[in-house]
Amino acid sequence: MKLVEALSGRAGRAGLRGLLVDPEARRALGRELNALLSAPEILGALHLRHARFRLRPDIKLSAYYDVDIRAKGSGRRAGTRAIAVVAKPKWYGRAGPTRVTPEAGELEAEARRRGLAAPFDRLTALMPSLAMSVQVSPLDPSFPQLVRLSDPEYVGQMLARCAPTHPLPAGGYAVTSVRYQPGQRHVLRYEAADAPGQPIMFAKPYENEEGSRIAAVVTQAADWLSSQQEGVACLRPLAHVPQDAVVLYPPLSGTPLHEQLRCSGREIGRRLEVAGQAMSVLHSAPQAFSGLLGFHSFEAEIGEVVDKSHFISALVPSAGSTIDALLDRARELYDRLPQEAPAFTHGDLKVEHFWVNPRGLTLMDFDVCRLADPALDIGQFLADLRFWHDTYGRSAVEQARGRFLAGCATGAPHERLVRARLYEALELIRIAGRRLPLLDSHWEARLGRLLGWAAVLLDDLYDLRADHHRNTLGSVRRASASPKAAHRHPVRAAG
Q1: Is the Cβ–Cβ distance between 201 and 251 less than 8 Å?
Q2: Do 125 and 144 lie in a common domain?
Q3: Which of 107, 271, 298, 486 is geometrically suited to a Cys-Cys bond with 493, CB 3.0 to 4.6 A?
Q4: What SS3 state is found at 318?
Q5: The domain that contains 412 carries what CATH number?
Q6: What is the pLDDT of residue 489?
Q7: What domain range is 305 assigned to?
């Protein structure tokens, strides 16, 4: 069966691409979605946000769409709805009920009571003819609070309780799903109903007590950074609402830093340097952070890279072999490098997580902050700089890297910057698996460039270690032949 062949990855990226963009595949998905509606024929175009493919623990293609909703009778676009589609070969032709868990049914009923389901009658279903399941926002059993957090009436009541000093709109709220990824994460935008496009705040729901921890960490990080450096800040939470397991954030003005990489000039260089300085400040944060942070080891980082990139071997076997060889070499090099104690790290230091505004830079999204090698943050940022320069077709990446490293060097030991090269190589592999769009017509060429840069970084690091070893060995030999030399350079003589 061609469908199963494509979903398994055996048809390569072209097979996956066909499932996502082929007109007949889109029409088939549209027909199945119409079956979930209380009133048929009001769905418009499907707009693919992004897609991901994986092989473990089982084969799965995930696609996230915004679907246009047309006004009944007029055909005019009345809004959009976020949906998530998951396809697995094992679901093809599956017999049995197409509804899912009782928990999902209860959330569907709650969404209907709150007036959030329409025009859908059902918000989840299994579609065996397409080997797919679908979930429609605001449904997610992993985040049951998402339904009520999407209810404008409930939002008004919640904000009146937890943010009484925040000005509330007289005309009520409008709620928009900014990110809908069932089982993973969500972001909601709250606006005044009579002023669309002007966000009042953003809401990020969490599982269990994770939101409380994140809010506490970000607040402490913001306090520390503001006390140590001017011109850069952390985006502080407005409030944490324990009963709803949600953290509220103010709107962030300005533009993300990665958009400014399209242009050259001293201003972007200065901002990159300030970003590097900010990371050195956060890496020196006091140990009070430790109780709120989990430890992230080098092997755990390797595991995350493998998890994000393992599917590449099914689409381009030669690239999979290259990745395996690069990871083996990274492990070997890491064991030979000087280490330092773990420190507070952002954990997901992308260029776009810095925003430029009139006050300077604002750093956001601390959801995976942890105790780790501070070289991890530096390597992540450097790899992201390469990714965006490649995306924009810009050639000034070395100058950009130099300015960021100049900022980092103000508070970082040289050995940290050396290890950052290794983490940069790892992050380039992760980017190849996580962020290269499957629909990019140049996907294989960009994949090759990312892996090529990772290989060069590891080669350079290997050469650097070899030079250091030769210089150290020469120092030991000279010291053995000359007691005076050993007296002048006791550390070098000890190797």
Answers
A1: yes
A2: no
A3: 486
A4: helix
A5: 3.90.1200.10
A6: 29
A7: 252-477
Report how many domains make up the chain: 3
- Among 138, 166, 186, the domain-final residue is 138
Do the domain assignments include residue 495?
no
Cα 38 from chain centroid (whole Å): 35
pLDDT at 437 over 70: yes
CA distances from 376 to 207, 347, 453 (A): 26, 7, 17
pLDDT at 98 exceeding the cut of 70: no
Tokens 């009001």, located at residue? 42
Q: What is the pLDDT of residue 421?
A: 96
pLDDT, tens digit (0-9, with 9 covering 90-100), for 445-456:
999 999 999 999
How far are the Cα atoms of 33, 141, 244, 249, 306 from residue 209, in angstroms, in the given order?
A: 35, 17, 10, 17, 28
DSSP reduced 3-state for 256: strand
Least confident of 56-60, 311-315, 380-384: 56-60
What distance, in Å, lies between the first and last C-alpha atoms of the chain?
63
My answer on whether 83 and 169 are in the same domain is: no
Residue 476: predicted pLDDT: 33
Say yes or no to pLDDT of 120 above 50.
yes
Residue 491 belongs to a domain: no
pLDDT tens digits for range 2-27:
888 899 888 999 999 999 998 988 88
pTM above 0.70, yes or no: yes
Cα–Cα dist 44/78, whole Å: 10
Residue 483 lies in a domain: no
Q: Are residues 130 and 185 in the same domain?
A: no
Same domain, 81 and 152: no
Instruction: Say if CB 337 and CB 244 are below 8 A apart.
Output: no
In a domain, 485, yes or no: no
